[in-house]
Design goal:
Chain lengths: 84, 287
């Protein structure tokens, strides 16, 4: 699995069926995504879900409104549903 | 001299003016929990039938953009994977999720979403009454269908199978079934084998981060937590819902299966089961 942060423009250009998990930023300009596909046009890439989760806790105000980050379980287990 | 009229009806003594508020600040002791259920009858495992019901008045706002654990339980002293059961709401995608697990690779999950009028999700859409589309997720400013004091009753029921399939589990919003979960047969990884050891029980938090804040903006209120040693029927859920006015659960027709009951009328003392500890900035509040 690949763990990325991409711009909204890149996100909207992707084959959404390839996305496993997605979470938009508070300002809706960026998305955290996980995908089996390899992407080049990314803002950040992470090795693991754990690394990504730590990043969101360190930068929580960009991603959540409760002062916390995104838990590893959410990244690994929450399935993105295109259009839902 | 006062004479007592033998035909006079007396009030039942059931009052419902208080609830418990889970803290929106993180601290070292903000949890609302039972440390260890001490064999009081809620040591459920993967192949037990049981039901959990509570009333909730959301305090989070629409900017939270993340998950809020509503209820969780785990082995005493356990972590995320230790015979964990949990119910949580994902504000970022408007889903109520239910999961049980015995390790990271052995788990069952299903969820219901509330903002789509697609026929597959219409029961949940109608039950919740939150409205259609991404701007109508559940929050303090959009509570959907509610009962007294703007509280919603959420009830999860599970049959005796180790399955998150729609044939084995149900979710109710107030007295109304949310219909089928997203996964017809559940999202399945491995075969959960939970213990039936004593359980810690948490309200308004995950079992692994009980001292973390829950939500944002204003405190979320919980009331009338009941835990049942059977899969409540739709009729029994309707009876518990009582048109939106909480009842004394000890008078419910299935009360013999009631293994935990907390009214939060001034403290966390249990009407049935063990007392809940209310710590830190979590507190008793008016409904």
């Amino acid at each position: 699995m690949n763990y990325y942060i991409v711009t909204s423009e890149v996100f909207e250009s992707l084959d959404l069926s390839s996305i496993r998990y997605a979470h938009k930023s508070q300002d809706r300009t960026k998305w955290i995504i996980t995908t089996e596909s390899t992407l080049d046009d990314v803002i950040l890439a992470f090795e693991t879900a754990e690394d990504l989760s730590v990043y969101t806790f360190d930068n929580h105000s960009d991603w959540t409104g409760d002062g916390g980050g995104i838990e590893v379980e959410d990244i690994k287990e929450t399935e993105y549903l295109s259009g839902l | 001299m006062h004479l007592i009229n033998p035909f006079m009806s007396f009030p039942s003594g059931f009052t419902n003016i208080k609830a418990v508020a889970k803290s929106i600040t993180t601290g070292t002791a903000q949890a609302v929990y039972v440390a260890d259920s001490n064999s009081s009858g809620v040591e459920w495992d993967h192949d037990d039938d049981f039901s959990i019901s509570f009333w909730i008045k959301p305090g989070w706002d629409s900017s939270i953009n993340t998950t809020i654990h509503l209820f969780s339980s785990t082995d005493a002293g356990g972590g995320v994977n230790d015979s964990t059961f949990r119910i949580w709401y994902s504000e970022n995608n408007n889903r109520i999720n239910v999961q049980w697990r015995s390790s990271s690779s052995h788990r069952r999950l299903n969820f219901w979403l509330f903002h789509s009028t697609n026929s597959a999700y219409l029961d949940a859409y109608n039950a919740a009454g939150l409205g259609e589309g991404g701007g109508n997720f559940w929050s303090a400013s959009n509570r959907g269908n509610v009962g007294d004091d703007d509280f919603t009753m959420i009830t999860f029921t599970k049959g005796a199978s180790n399955s998150a399939a729609n044939s084995n589990i149900n979710l109710y919003w107030n007295g109304t079934s949310c219909g089928n979960g997203y996964y017809a047969n559940g999202q399945n990884h491995g075969t959960p084998a939970m213990s039936n050891n004593d359980k810690q029980i948490f309200l308004g938090s995950s079992s692994w981060s009980p001292y973390q804040q829950s939500g944002n903006s204003s405190e979320t209120l919980y009331d009338g937590l009941t835990m049942w040693n059977s899969k409540l029927t739709a009729t029994e859920v309707t009876e518990l819902w009582n048109g939106g006015t909480p009842i004394d659960a000890t008078t419910h027709s299935n009360a013999t299966e009631l293994k935990g009951y907390w009214e939060f009328e001034g403290n966390g003392n249990a009407t049935v089961g063990e007392n809940i500890s209310i710590n830190g900035n979590s507190n008793i509040a008016n409904r």
